[in-house]
Structure formats: structure tokens, C-alpha cells
């Protein structure tokens, strides 16, 4: 039985990846931080077959211990402080977790490989946020990186450290440069879920308006369930490598609003949306659109869920959730 260890198991991608690996017959271990993580009950309900280990990416010894227990064939490093806006307010902590945490994970794997003689295939969750200031579109594996946030800078560090461990120690370390991917499990701080939740509440008469920041930024949004398949495929290759994972379509926040309100039959949302400078960023990533030709050709990967299907799925899920919370169903 193949064994996998996932950091960031309580996050959106951790859950989808764990479900995918369990469906393939893996023995799955998940690293969870904190002495009493509030997400533990939900995790135990959704993925009871995953063995939870405690540890933190900033604590190298906890990672070494987790590897000793899990004895993984594959290590997926999904743990991070992942909210870009928060990274300006907590730049040092973001650098420690999202940047140095990758070094800790790589080092723990290298030590484990050295002491056991066993190979562990390593996946690093790199990000399109690394492209930052627009240099070239669509963005590929070769596009110049110009990060625009402390989060983006930390991800660049982790990305190059992963490549460096591959080149220095011959580790099977791959980096997936994933563009934005969403789902009904997306954290409510991210714009897609903030919109789908608010649209659901407005539709049910529980809220009057949505307050947002920049409506003109463009993102290449895909479905998280499709993207975790790409992570797995990367670790099934003989050679480790880096891959862009994206849909190749880009949409503004305005188009997101069209699709989300459209899902509940509203065509003119102008009186329901207000902009507030508090949600503007000190530096914005204006345009993301990825070219995933390499992944499509070498991994045989392609996204299955369209933008409209994704947004409709999220709004419908939030309508049901909000009905339950409000005692309407
Ligand atoms: P989430 O924010 O949903 O999950 C982040 C996970 O990291 C959580 O499980 C969180 O645990 C964990 N974590 C936070 N701090 C630490 C720490 N100090 N030690 C160990 N774990 C920690 O992110 P996603 O699931 O959306 O993303 C997964 C990864 O992919 C992240 O690295 C993200 O940066 C990256 N990424 C995401 C993209 C996206 O569009 N979703 C696109 C490109 C990259 P807790 O629940 O305890 O806070
Ligand atoms: P992003 O996602 O920063 O791309 O990072 P987010 O959904 O936070 O922002 C996307 C765009 O929407 C604009 N925006 C708002 N964003 C939020 N969160 N809240 C608002 O009210 C709002 N109004 C407008 C933003 O300015 C931005 O342009 C995500 C994360 O998952 C990262 O971890 C990951 O690496 C990247 O995607 C790829």
C-alpha cells in the first residue's frame, strides 16, 4: 500500500487530495497544527480513514517525527499561510511558514531519506501569485517571477528551494505552479467564496449587499478537485519537474459577480455591490492566465469543471448551507 503524508490537511486542497488518495487505496497521514485545532472534528467526520499527526511547518523536529511515523512514499507540502491580503499584515510569520516551512519540509525529507535509504517523492504547492507584476501572458513555467506580496515572495523562496534540493541532492521534488482553484470548501476570506456566500444570503433575504475591493483584477479560476489530480500525477512521473496548472481562461471579479448572481436569477447586481478601500491591496496582481500545455502533454491532465459550473456549484452549496444555518430548511 502506498503511503502519503500531507501537510495542510485541514485546508481546501488537503481535504480533496486526501479523498483522492484514499480512493486510490493509499494509506494517508495528515499533519495538523495546534494543540486543539478547531477543524479536527470536521476532518474526522469527512475523512475518518486519515491518520492525524500533530506538527508545524516551523518546527523541524515535528516534521522529522511525522516522517518517522508515516514512513511515506509521497510527501505533499500544502501547508502555508495562504491568504495574500493577510501576508502584508503578518509578513514575518508568512515568511516563516510559507517560505522557511518549505525548507524545513525538504530538510526533514532529506534526513529521512538519508537514514532509511528510502526515496520520498515530494510535492511543493507553488503558486501563480509568484508571477505577480505582469511580464508576459499567458504565464508558463519559464515566465519571469516578480512577486507582489510577502506571500508571493515566500512562495518564490519555497519554489526555488524545491528546485535546489532536486538539483543538489537528486531528490524527486516537484513544484506545481497552481493558478487559483476554488470549491464549496474554499475559505470564506477568498473572493470567490466571499461572493458565493454573500449571493446566497442576499438571495435568501439574510444580507443586503457585498462589500469588495478591486473589481478589475483578473484571475484564472479552476476547480480544486481537478487540481489535486495534477498534484498526484506529478508524483507518478519518473522524473521530478515543475508544471503550471491552469484553465487558460481569465475572468474579472465583475464576471465572477455576473456568474454568481446569475446562478440565483439576478442580472443587474450594481445596487447590491459596494467597493471599500479596506479590501484593496498595497500592490495588486492585475492579470493571471496560465498556459498549462506542459501538464496537458506530459501528465495527460486537463480541467473538467468550467468557470460557470464552478461558480454555480459554489452558490448552490452556499444556498443550502445558509438555509440550514438560518433554520430555513
Ligand atoms: P488553505 O488556506 O485552505 O489551507 C492551508 C493549510 O495550511 C491549512 O491546513 C492550515 O492549517 C495549514 N497551515 C497553516 N499554517 C501552518 C503551519 N505553521 N504549519 C503547518 N500547517 C499550517 O489553502 P489551500 O488548501 O487553498 O492551498 C493549499 C496550498 O496550495 C497552500 O500552500 C497554498 O498557498 C497553495 N496554493 C493554493 C492555491 C489556491 O488557489 N487554493 C493556488 C496556488 C497555491 P490550519 O487549518 O490549522 O490553519
Ligand atoms: P488570491 O485570491 O489573492 O488570488 O490568492 P483572493 O480570492 O484572495 O483574491 C483574488 C482577487 O480578488 C480581489 N478582490 C478581493 N479578494 C478578497 N479576498 N476579498 C475581497 O473583498 C476582494 N475584492 C476584490 C483581490 O484583490 C484579488 O485580485 C489565492 C490564494 O489561494 C493563494 O494562496 C494562491 O496562491 C493564489 O490564489 C493563486
TrEMBL record:
The keyword NADP applies. It comes from Antiquaquibacter oligotrophicus. This is GDP-mannose 4,6-dehydratase. Pfam families: GDP_Man_Dehyd. Residues 5-314 form the NAD(P)-binding domain. It catalyses: GDP-alpha-D-mannose = GDP-4-dehydro-alpha-D-rhamnose + H2O. It is an enzyme of class 4 (lyase). Belongs to the NAD(P)-dependent epimerase/dehydratase family. GDP-mannose 4,6-dehydratase subfamily. The keyword NADP applies. The gene is gmd. It comes from the Bacteria. InterPro entries: GDP_Man_deHydtase (IPR006368), NAD(P)-bd_dom (IPR016040), NAD(P)-bd_dom_sf (IPR036291). Its EC number is 4.2.1.47. Coiled coil: none annotated. Its cofactor is NADP(+). GO terms for molecular function: GDP-mannose 4,6-dehydratase activity.
Amino acid at each position: 500500500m502506498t503511503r502519503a503524508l500531507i501537510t495542510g490537511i485541514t485546508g481546501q486542497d488537503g481535504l480533496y487530495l486526501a479523498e483522492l488518495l484514499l480512493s486510490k487505496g493509499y494509506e494517508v497521514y495528515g499533519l495538523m497544527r495546534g494543540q486543539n485545532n478547531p477543524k479536527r472534528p470536521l476532518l474526522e467526520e469527512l475523512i475518518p480513514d486519515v491518520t492525524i499527526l500533530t506538527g508545524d511547518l516551523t518546527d523541524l523536529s515535528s516534521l522529522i517525527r511525522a516522517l518517522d511515523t508515516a514512513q511515506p512514499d509521497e510527501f505533499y507540502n500544502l501547508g502555508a499561510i495562504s491568504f495574500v491580503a493577510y501576508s502584508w499584515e503578518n509578513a514575518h510569520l508568512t515568511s516563516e511558514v510559507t517560505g522557511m516551512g518549505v525548507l524545513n519540509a525538504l530538510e526533514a525529507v532529506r534526513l529521512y531519506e538519508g537514514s532509511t535509504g528510502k526515496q520520498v517523492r515530494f510535492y511543493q504547492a507553488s503558486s501563480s501569485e509568484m508571477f505577480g507584476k505582469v511580464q508576459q501572458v499567458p504565464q508558463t513555467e519559464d515566465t519571469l517571477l516578480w512577486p507582489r506580496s510577502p506571500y508571493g515572495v515566500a512562495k518564490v523562496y519555497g519554489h526555488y528551494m524545491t528546485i535546489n534540493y532536486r538539483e543538489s541532492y537528486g531528490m524527486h521534488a516537484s513544484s506545481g505552479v497552481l493558478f487559483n482553484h476554488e470549491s464549496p470548501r474554499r475559505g470564506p476570506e477568498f473572493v470567490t467564496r466571499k461572493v458565493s456566500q454573500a449571493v446566497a444570503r442576499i438571495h435568501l433575504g439574510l444580507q443586503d449587499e457585498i462589500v469588495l475591493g478591486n473589481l478589475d483584477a483578473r484571475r484564472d479560476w479552476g476547480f480544486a478537485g481537478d487540481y489535486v489530480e495534477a498534484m498526484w500525477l506529478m508524483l507518478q512521473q519518473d522524473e521530478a519537474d515543475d508544471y503550471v496548472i491552469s484553465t487558460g481562461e481569465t475572468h474579472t471579479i465583475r464576471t465572477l459577480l455576473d456568474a454568481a448572481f446569475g446562478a440565483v436569477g439576478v442580472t443587474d447586481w450594481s445596487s447590491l455591490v459596494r467597493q471599500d478601500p479596506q479590501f484593496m491591496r498595497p500592490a495588486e496582481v492585475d492579470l493571471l492566465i496560465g498556459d498549462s500545455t506542459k501538464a496537458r502533454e506530459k501528465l495527460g491532465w486537463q480541467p473538467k469543471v468550467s468557470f460557470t459550473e464552478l461558480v454555480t456549484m459554489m452558490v448552490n452549496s452556499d444556498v443550502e448551507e445558509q438555509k440550514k444555518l438560518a433554520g430555513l430548511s
